[in-house]
Amino acid sequence: MPIVTVWDNDEKTVLRHVYEKSWTWADFKANLMQCREMLDSIDYTADLIIDTRNGRTLPDGAMGSLGVLRMSTHPNLGKTVLVGTNLFISRLYNAFHRAYCDNEHGLALAPTLDMARTMLSDQKLYLIGLNADDLLAVRSA
Q: Rounded CA gap, 104 and 73, in Å?
């Protein structure tokens, strides 16, 4: 499958979407349903890492299809960190997330998977990652 969702740890407190090669909006929707089922199986909050390092950034029809993000909210979904994308995609996702989602958490941007995991466990780093410009400053320092 072009998008796979797995538990990132044995405690099932972090989900990880892994984007591999090309994917379609149908793949994205199917993955969202799988993610919802996984979140339904727990009774606590789990965070999410979206790993796009090996995937194509966005398939055709992005502007018309991003409304599907409304389906991405779940009462058990906590913080989200995006790994391996550019600043434009991060800001685009954040804009649609704020417009369509009722989840209070924004999307943080991390340069590596290890940094994403660290950001989820360190609130100060997570807050820096919410402002991609601040994260870029930290990375270049």
A: 10
Chain mean pLDDT for the chain: 77
What is the crossing angle of helices 87-100 and 132-140, to 10°? 150
Q: What are phi and psi of 11, to 5 degrees?
A: -75, -10
| Contact call for residues 112 and 122 (beta carbons, < 8 A) | no
Sequence ranges of the domains in the chain = 3-140
Instruction: Say yes or no to pLDDT of 140 above 50.
Output: no
- Say if domain 3-140 classifies as CATH 3.30.750.24: yes
Sequence-ordered list of residues with C-beta below 8 angstroms from that of 11, at least 6 positions apart, any chain: none
Neighbours of 40 (CB within 10 A): 11
pLDDT at residue 15 greater than cutoff 90:
yes
Q: Apex CA 55: angle with CA 69 and CA 135, to 5°?
A: 75
Length of the chain: 141
Say if pTM beats, i.e. exceeds, 0.85: no
